[in-house]
Design a protein that fits this description.
The structure is a single chain. This protein is mainly α and about 375 residues long. Helix content is about 70%, strand content about 0%. It contains 24 helices and no strands. The protein is globular and about 80 Å long. The N and C termini lie far apart (about 75 Å).
């Protein structure tokens, strides 16, 4: 069993004999031989590897899953899906990796064929996860249909798979899940999936059209709040007027959702809105979040004129009343090395709570500035 893979290659006729002896070897010898068998054609070794994957030894099973990832064919797909559905921890991860690594279109066809048979929920979830991992786009309709399942784990796996194989046309069905979700996990997964699918559109304009339409139709405040939160994750400038309207609402939940959506906006298009919240909001939480959001937005454009960027960071510093937000400003300053950044960082040396971060910022800015600029 201690033969290397290279040595075994000289004795192809011995493979059948070695496979037959595999179960009687010690655990360590089985692991070595299984590793060697992984370089052989599947039809010669796959049966023995499947048997090894049923071993009471976890080390042997893990070696078998790894070997099956390179030797297995379409015939092992049902076995792997079933095993992944019942396994846990690192072994489940190893089985999923094996199912995702199998080569060939036949594997994808096998996954789709099994999904069409409507297998038990746990196996269905593993097959959908594999379809997403493998980018098995022909499985998309079956995965999208699973969003209507009454079983939450099935819906969760469908949401995760659609992030890889879905299209913007699936957003409406994902929104159904988002609006109906009872748990935080499902809500977060649906929100993430809807945002990613909507973001696949080539142009930002219209990316969130479906979300805005559903917002108009939504009758409950809870539904509108969820949709407003999603709008903040999708870069569609046409959504900003709707969020501004939400800020002016008399409903506290709508105001909060609209504010948070603006503060999570993925581009600098919401810069002025963020500044307005930082300056004028009566909600202390919103003001704190706005200061952090302003620092984040400034950092999005690394090629911006340094003096202009530092001007915004100075505003964030002036509006900050806690060291936490001041440290965010200091962390961003070295991205825009200029004399103004150096002066702003130097001002924080007076405070014990920010002195260490100020010194670090000054050092990093100085390293990036020409000596002439430092002497000015």
């Amino acid at each position: 069993a201690a033969l290397s893979q290279a040595s075994l290659a000289f004795f192809p006729d011995t493979i059948g004999e070695l496979c037959a002896r595999l179960p009687g070897l010690s655990e360590g010898e089985q692991v070595i031989l299984i590793s060697a068998l992984s370089s052989y054609p599947g039809d010669a070794v796959v049966t023995s590897l499947v048997d090894a994957a049923k071993s009471p030894s976890e080390a042997v099973r893990l070696a078998a899953w790894q070997a099956l990832s390179t030797t297995g064919g379409a015939s092992v797909v049902p076995f792997l899906a079933d095993a992944a559905a019942s396994a846990r921890g690192r072994e489940q991860s190893a089985i999923r990796a094996a199912l995702g690594s199998l080569k060939g279109r036949a594997i994808d066809d096998a996954i789709v064929a099994l999904l069409e048979k409507e297998p038990p929920d746990a196996i269905r979830g593993e097959l959908m996860l594999a379809a997403g991992e493998r980018r098995t786009f022909q499985a998309r309709p079956l995965v999208a249909d699973a969003l209507a399942s009454e079983v939450e784990p099935v819906r969760l796996q469908a949401l995760r798979a659609l992030r890889a194989i879905g299209t913007p046309s699936d957003v409406d069905a994902v929104l159904d899940v988002l609006l109906a979700a009872d748990g935080d996990t499902e809500r977060a997964e649906a929100e993430k999936t809807a945002a990613e699918l909507a973001g696949m559109s080539a142009s930002p304009v219209g990316r969130a059209r479906t979300v805005r339409s559903r917002f108009t139709e939504a009758e409950s405040t809870a539904g509108r709040v969820r949709l407003l939160g999603l709008l903040g994750l999708v870069d569609d400038p046409a959504s900003l007027p709707l969020l501004r309207t939400g800020l002016a609402s008399g409903d506290g939940e709508i105001v909060d959702a609209a504010a948070r959506a603006i503060l999570a906006w993925p581009t600098s298009d919401a810069r002025d809105d963020i500044i307005a919240l930082a300056r004028n909001s009566r909600n202390e939480t919103h003001r704190l979040l706005a200061i952090g959001a302003l620092v984040r937005v400034v950092g999005l454009d690394r090629y911006r004129n340094p003096q202009a960027a530092v001007s915004d960071l100075r505003l964030a510093a002036e509006l900050s009343w806690r060291p936490e937000e001041q440290k965010l400003v200091l962390g961003a300053l070295p991205q825009f090395p200029c004399r103004e950044a150096l002066d702003l960082a130097t001002g924080f040396l007076r405070e014990d709570a920010t002195r260490e971060e100020a010194q670090a910022a000054i050092r990093r800015i100085t390293e990036r500035l020409p000596k002439e600029a430092i002497r000015q």
